[in-house]
Design goal:
- The protein is mainly beta.
- Helix content is about 15%, strand content about 45%.
- The chain has 1 helix and 6 strands; from the N terminus they run E-H-E-E-E-E-E.
- Strands 1, 2, 3, 4, 5 and 6 form a 6-stranded mixed beta sheet that branches.
- Strand 3 and strand 4 (about 50-60) form a beta hairpin.
- It starts with a strand and ends with a strand.
- The relative contact order is 0.29.
């Protein structure tokens, strides 16, 4: 399952108490694809919703546990849930 998280910038997350981070961490732990979508990165192209998002990995062993990948252009049908 791929889950898209529409949220404030990753740099502002407080990992010790942020609910979005907790959901991302659990989804990643359960093997789901986790994607970050900042505000303003949604558009319509030929009648289909597209987003510019980053795949996110969670590694609690790092000083900053959120590792964001390259920006990707993805269609809405590539996600199973949006939070």
């Amino acid at each position: 399952m791929n889950i898209l998280f529409l949220m404030d910038p990753l740099e502002g997350i407080k990992v010790e108490k942020d609910t979005s981070y907790a959901f991302m961490r659990e989804a990643h732990k359960r093997g789901h694809g986790v994607y970050y979508l900042p505000q303003g990165n949604i558009s319509l192209s030929d009648g289909q919703v597209v987003v510019r998002a980053q795949k996110v990995l969670i590694d609690k062993n790092l000083d900053w546990p959120i590792v964001a990948g390259e920006w990707q252009r993805l269609r809405d049908d590539e996600f199973d849930a949006v939070m």
